[in-house]
């Protein structure tokens, strides 16, 4: 059954975004450093993702409590707001609405059929899930350097929560049409395992080499099945080219307006001042560096 019989769930109320620019400018004070002395809590908020993770690992102590007891303690602390990260309330509003908007862009705004044809993938619901997960990963890869640790974690959790709510609804609708149950515990565990594996392996492969990324693509996108190596190479090129394009977008623009179009950036040889943006097979030229003549004048 084609993926186009799915019902698209609109997560974002478009009218909310008219006032988000002012909100982001107000809450930007929480993301920038100040000349006044900072308390230890403020310094902890401004740490990077890597430093935050390192501190969490170093500060964690070995425990012998059963897993169920640990979960109960964690839920109690969360309910009582013990150890709250104290993110600015206005920034929380921006992050929550941005996560919903960005997931909608990841799930609906990329050229699904063209990618299926280019990558040699069948038009199945599982293919849509894996391609959507790939675009979610690319957005998280772009924003994890733009936000401080607690803000990024809130955005990540909200975005992934929106994704799973959408997946559950789509599977429910498809199951009603085919008179099958597609949301069994076994199936959901497999999808969740693939989701965790994909995010981890894409991170490692992207940071290591194209060979490592190709292996991650083969395991996560093609599920270790026989495929044409040319298709794997196309996926690797698409991922790196798309991340390169996202790097040209301003972080505030991504958070406020989302990603309206998915493009790939093809840089010219070293020393060139221009780059070419591929959009629907048509090469559009945009300047990523200011012209030397204009800057000198």
TrEMBL record:
Pfam families on file: Ubiq_cyt_C_chap (PF03981)
Ubiquinol-cytochrome c chaperone domain ranges (all copies): 117-259
Record-linked InterPro entries: Ubiq_cyt_c_chap (IPR021150), Ubiqinol_cyt_c_chaperone_CPB3 (IPR007129)
Family label: Belongs to the CBP3 family.
Name of the protein this chain belongs to: Ubiquinol-cytochrome c chaperone domain-containing protein
Biological source species: Gnathostoma spinigerum
């Amino acid at each position: 059954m084609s993926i186009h019989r799915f019902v698209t769930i609109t997560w974002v109320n478009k009218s909310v975004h008219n006032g988000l620019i002012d909100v982001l400018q107000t809450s930007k004070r929480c993301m920038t450093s100040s000349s006044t002395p900072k308390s230890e809590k403020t310094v902890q908020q401004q740490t990077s993702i890597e430093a935050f993770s390192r501190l969490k690992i170093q500060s964690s102590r070995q425990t012998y409590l059963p897993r169920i007891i640990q979960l109960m303690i964690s839920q109690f602390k969360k309910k009582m707001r013990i150890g709250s990260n104290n993110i600015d309330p206005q920034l929380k509003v921006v992050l929550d609405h941005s996560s919903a908007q960005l997931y909608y862009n990841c799930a609906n705004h990329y050229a699904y059929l063209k990618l299926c044809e280019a990558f040699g993938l069948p038009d199945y619901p599982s293919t849509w899930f894996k391609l959507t997960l790939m675009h979610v990963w690319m957005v998280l890869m772009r924003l994890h350097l733009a936000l401080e640790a607690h803000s990024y974690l809130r955005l990540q959790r909200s975005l992934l929560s929106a994704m799973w709510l959408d997946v559950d609804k789509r599977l429910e609708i498809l199951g009603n049409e085919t008179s099958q149950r597609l949301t069994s515990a076994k199936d959901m565990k497999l999808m969740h395992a693939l989701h965790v594996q994909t995010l981890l392996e894409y991170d490692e492969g992207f940071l290591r080499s194209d060979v490592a990324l190709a292996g991650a693509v083969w395991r996560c996108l093609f599920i270790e099945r026989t495929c044409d190596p040319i298709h794997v190479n196309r996926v690797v090129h698409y991922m790196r080219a798309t991340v390169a394009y996202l790097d040209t977008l301003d972080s505030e623009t991504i958070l406020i307006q989302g990603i309206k179009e998915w493009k790939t950036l093809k840089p010219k040889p070293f020393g060139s001042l221009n780059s070419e943006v591929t959009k629907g097979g048509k090469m559009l030229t945009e300047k990523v560096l200011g012209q030397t003549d204009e800057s000198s004048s």
